Amino acid sequence: MWQDFSFSDIRFAELAQHVDGGARVLKQNPVECLFQFLCSSNNNIKRIEKMVSSMERFGDFLGNVGGFDFYKFPSIDRLSCISEQQLRDAGFGYRAKFVVGTVKALQEKPGGGEHWLDSLRKMELCSVVRELCTLPGVGPKVASCVALFSLDQHHAIPVDTHVWQIATRYYIPELADAKLAPKLFSRVSDAFVAKFGKYAGWAQTLLFIGELPSPKTKKPTGGKKCKNDNNETY
DNA sequence: AGCGTACCTCGGAC
DNA sequence: AGTCCGAGGTACG
Ligand SMILES: [Mg+2]
After folding, report:
1. What ipTM was reported for this prediction?
2. Which among A55, A98, A54 has a CA at the least distance from the CA of A74?
3. What is this structure's pTM?
4. Which chain B nucleotides are covered by protein, judged by CB under 7 A?
5. Which of A45, A65, A141, A175 has the most CB atoms within 10 Å of its CB?
6. Mind listing the domains of chain A with CATH numbers?
7. For the HhH-GPD domain, which residue ranges apply (predicted)?
8. Which three-class secondary structure state does DSSP give residue A62?
């Protein structure tokens, strides 16, 4: 698959050579995935991880490995025991009410929230996103993440600030100075699907990793120039 | 429909 | 040391 992506995009080809050990696009549990990305809005990864681990402590204790405690991610019912104040105290900020509201909304689904989330698997991507967006704190980006990482929607493109940077730099440079707006969300998404096709979401994930200030990538530095689709150097 | 703006918190940059 | 900025967006006017 990487070869296909590399053929489709020169930048992908170059980046792929510099990502050690590959990247994994995990098929996550939908509940866990949803609440993780519910914490992600306007936030940094370190704090997101802290918030997620504080939610996990409401799940069953699994054991201790190498000095680290592990917990099963809480069920929706278990999550419903957490108050907004507890979440505030745990540093969730304004996302505290999103968590409480989404738990409540899920509990009210006929057949339960877990079942409702699973039922989204067999729907079209646009319907999946639309349904998920009815939850408080869930917009198009979070919905796309949940769809891609936990609901088998491999062509979902979560358009976040990083993807926006990538897209305007390499694929649609004419929008370089525009603000990331909902209207342009689809524009970016279309650009990725046009370029990478069925598994565009996976390609997006790799390019996203390339943007992160992470030791996982050792991007080419110093002097090397490349060209984007419009033959502009970067 | 489309566009501005506020929003919790917090580590790093200056 | 104080201030400012921005981070895997969303809700609301
Ligand atoms: Mg929503």
Report:
1. 0.94
2. A55
3. 0.89
4. 1-4, 7-11
5. A141
6. 2-24+156-209 (1.10.1670.10), 30-150 (1.10.340.30)
7. 39-212
8. strand
